[in-house]
């Protein structure tokens, strides 16, 4: 394989037309430039120059090599520039979060993309375990989780608190334990966990969500409150999910006497450099959480 440093010296010499000025441009000695050309000639087995003192003319082989080599050198220069460039407002950024956080954050990240059209937001909803694994396997740039990471390769720092809310049909103004038992529970993938955190802190009678009749289940964050709005039961959700519901006049959200919040962690890989475009998205995300 031809050494690209020799090629660069040869192409520069052809374009400058003078050994001394080529050496000055490349910050080399004149003998160094001559040595690179001789090594090229040895490798291709052809004379490339007919030397006339410190000047020269190209042989046919030299002409052919220059035509091919200048394309290669330009491509290498462009590659070097692309690798060195780290723009803050263009490129793909992959984000993953639980549904509630996603409902809050995704519209703001789309607005960021509108301001910077070369920025591409790939946003996916997932449970904590999947988010953590995706960060560790470098499948996502930013992962938002509601629990700290147990993996050494994942750097997870607390960035916000999200309140848990009891959500009932509109008719229930001050939910008693008896009313909750009568209503029944609208479950979701984190339903038992959220109910355990909030209800155990506010209702002495609570032991487990199994105490309630299950009146429905949905794994779609935007649909969990539909049955609640129709009077079919109550649920416990993070605040962002409740705030995103499109028919707030049909439900009541209750901040109970003993508030309970989940800590939100922002996770990135410890093993990867964080590009500027990812830093831009992190700053924007923290602004809205």
Keywords for this structure?
289 residues; 45% helix; single chain; 11 helices; alpha/beta
Describe the protein in words:
By secondary structure, the protein is α/β, with parallel strands linked by helices. The chain has 11 helices and 11 strands. Strands 3, 4, 5, 6, 9, 10 and 11 form a 7-stranded mixed beta sheet that branches. It has a two-stranded antiparallel sheet with strand order 1-2. The chain has a two-stranded parallel sheet with strand order 7-8. Strand 1 and strand 2 form a beta hairpin. Helix 1 crosses helix 2, helix 2 packs across helix 3 and helix 5 crosses helix 11. The radius of gyration is 32 Å and the shape is rod-shaped. The chain starts with a helix and ends with a helix.
Provide a count of the helices.
11
Mean pLDDT: 92
Distance between the termini: 54 Å
Shape: rod-shaped
Q: Kindly state the percentage of residues in helix.
A: 40-55%
Largest pleated sheet? 7 strands, mixed
Low-confidence residue ranges = none
Task: Indicate the radius of gyration in whole angstroms.
Answer: 32 Å
């Amino acid at each position: 394989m031809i050494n690209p440093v020799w090629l660069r010296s040869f192409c520069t010499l052809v374009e400058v037309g003078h050994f001394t000025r080529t050496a000055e441009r490349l910050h080399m000695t004149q003998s160094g430039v001559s040595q690179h050309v001789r090594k090229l000639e040895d490798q291709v087995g052809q004379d490339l120059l007919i030397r006339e003192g410190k000047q020269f003319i190209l042989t046919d082989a030299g002409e052919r090599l220059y035509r091919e080599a200048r394309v290669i050198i330009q491509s290498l220069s462009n590659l070097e520039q692309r690798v060195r460039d780290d723009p803050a407002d263009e490129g793909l950024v992959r984000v993953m979060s639980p549904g509630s956080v996603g409902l809050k954050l995704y519209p703001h990240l789309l607005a960021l993309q509108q301001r910077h059209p070369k920025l591409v937001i790939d946003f996916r909803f997932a449970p904590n375990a999947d988010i953590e694994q995706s960060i560790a396997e470098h499948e996502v740039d930013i992962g938002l989780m509601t629990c700290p990471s147990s993996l050494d390769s994942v750097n997870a720092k607390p960035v916000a608190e999200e309140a848990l809310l009891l959500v009932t049909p509109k008719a229930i103004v001050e939910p008693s334990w008896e009313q909750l038992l009568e209503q029944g529970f609208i479950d979701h993938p984190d339903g038992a966990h959220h109910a355990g955190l909030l209800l155990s802190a506010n209702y002495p009678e609570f032991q487990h969500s199994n105490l309630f009749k299950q009146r429905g289940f949905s794994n779609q964050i935007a649909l969990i409150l539909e049955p609640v709005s129709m009077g079919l039961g109550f649920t416990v959700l993070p605040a962002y999910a409740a705030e995103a519901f499109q028919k707030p006049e049909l439900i009541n959200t209750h901040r109970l006497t003993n508030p309970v919040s989940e800590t939100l962690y922002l996770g990135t890989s410890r093993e990867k450099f964080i590009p500027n475009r990812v830093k831009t998205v992190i700053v924007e995300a923290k602004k809205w959480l």
